[in-house]
From TrEMBL:
It comes from Marinobacter azerbaijanicus. The keyword Ion transport does not apply. This is MFS transporter. It is a multi-pass membrane protein. Its main location: membrane. InterPro entries: HcaT-like, MFS_assoc_dom, MFS_dom, MFS_trans_sf. The keyword Transferase does not apply.
């Protein structure tokens, strides 16, 4: 374990976050536009975009278990980075729908394995200076914003079919960064008390918590799958689309900087209900007032609520309910049931709404999901126990 803060360690840890989220910045805003350019239908685009979330249901648990079992997290991160990049190369063969579906399932299975393992490596490498985590993780957001702006700018000059080529340097960055990761010394956890995980998971407040986050990610299905297509239909350029995506991440960073003040002054339930309500308003604004730039900017600033605030309280909530012994399993369930299952179902359902009606209808579907989540949260969410 590294107990002294040294600049080389800071950069070695920050590097992978930068490149990992830069790839996300190159994929999320533009991949649906690339698929549309390849001639896929809206339902096929929704299914292919859903794979990014779908593998999150299984990958974090499988790779987390392997990491705990072997203690070789650094090697697993390197293996995931190289293997994921090799599978992505299948995109250049320009396969049909089913071929591309297999390529994306394989690529995202290994890619989604990297982050949960790396979070553990980072926190253990920082040792007693875990409060420095935010400064390390911040480079992920920088990478995302940089990639969104740069790729968006280049796509103003070249056709969208060149997107996979633009992502190649990012994959190279991920591969090189994986080999700069500091070696981790094994650390054994004390044996967990048996039989208590089931009691935690079936607790009514925890069930409400997972339902709330599941519906939150269902509502984001239209955003992650069709936001770029929705904006393009309303005449926005690729650079403008990229900047609007970046604005959401900037708002998220700003929220993280003041989140500690909000948690001191408001309860988890109050923050959750306020954030869910703002998220519902966000989807309605995107659905109906897309042409007014000022309103769209405001809607993107609400990403601070729909992702930032709810994710921040969720991490604390899991720590409070699952405790030290089941923290890893709690995080895996959170990732799999919400970002994984919720995100995939949301993407797929939004595909049906766009195919049958319009992109606006998909965002209205997200708003309805939020209305249900508000009722469930109002009735059932309770604070985690104090430790």
């Amino acid at each position: 374990m590294i107990t002294h803060w040294r600049v080389p360690i800071y950069w070695r840890l920050s590097n992978l976050y930068f490149w990992f989220f830069a790839l996300l910045g190159g994929l999320l805003p533009y991949w649906s536009l690339y698929l549309e350019g390849r001639g896929f239908s809206y339902l096929e685009i929704a299914t292919l975009m859903a794979t990014i979330q779908l593998t999150k249901i299984v990958a974090p648990s499988v790779w987390g278990w392997l990491g705990d079992r072997t203690g070789q997290r650094v090697r697993l991160v390197r293996f995931g980075a190289i293997t994921g990049s090799l599978f992505f190369a299948g995109v250049f063969m320009e396969p049909g729908f089913y071929g591309l579906l297999l390529v994306m399932l394989a690529f995202t299975f290994f890619w989604n394995a990297i982050l949960p393992l790396y979070e553990v490596i980072t926190l253990r490498s920082l040792g007693t200076q875990r409060d420095r985590y935010g400064k390390v993780r911040l480079w992920g957001s920088v990478g995302f914003i940089g990639a969104v702006a740069l790729v968006g700018g280049i796509l103003e000059l070249v056709p969208i079919k060149f997107l996979p080529w633009l992502l190649l340097p990012v994959f190279a960055g991920i591969a090189v960064s994986a080999f700069l990761v500091p070696s981790e010394q094994g650390e054994r956890k004390p044996p967990a008390p048996k039989g208590s995980l089931k009691a935690i998971v079936t607790h009514p407040a925890v069930v409400t918590f997972f339902l709330m986050n599941f519906l939150l990610q269902v509502s984001h299905g239209a955003y992650y799958t069709f936001f770029s297509i929705h904006l393009e239909q309303h005449g926005y350029s690729k650079l403008a689309i990229g900047l609007l995506w970046s604005l959401g991440v900037v708002a998220e960073i700003g929220l993280f900087l003041v989140m500690h003040r909000l948690t001191r002054n408001f309860t988890v339930r109050q923050i959750a209900i306020a954030a869910l309500t703002l998220t519902m308003i966000r989807w309605v604004l995107i659905a109906e007032v897309t042409d007014v730039v000022a309103v769209l900017i405001f809607a993107q600033l609400l990403h601070a609520a729909s992702y930032g605030a709810l994710h921040a309280i969720s991490v604390q909530y899991i720590q409070g309910f699952f405790g030290q012994h089941h923290h890893g399993q709690g995080q895996a369930l959170y990732s799999g049931l919400t970002f994984g299952a919720g995100g995939a179902i949301g993407a797929w359902m939004s595909g049906f709404l766009v195919d049958g009606f319009s992109t606006s209808a998909a965002f209205w579907g997200g708003a309805i999901a939020m209305a249900i989540a508000i009722i469930i949260t109002w009735r059932g969410l309770r604070p985690p126990p104090e430790h």
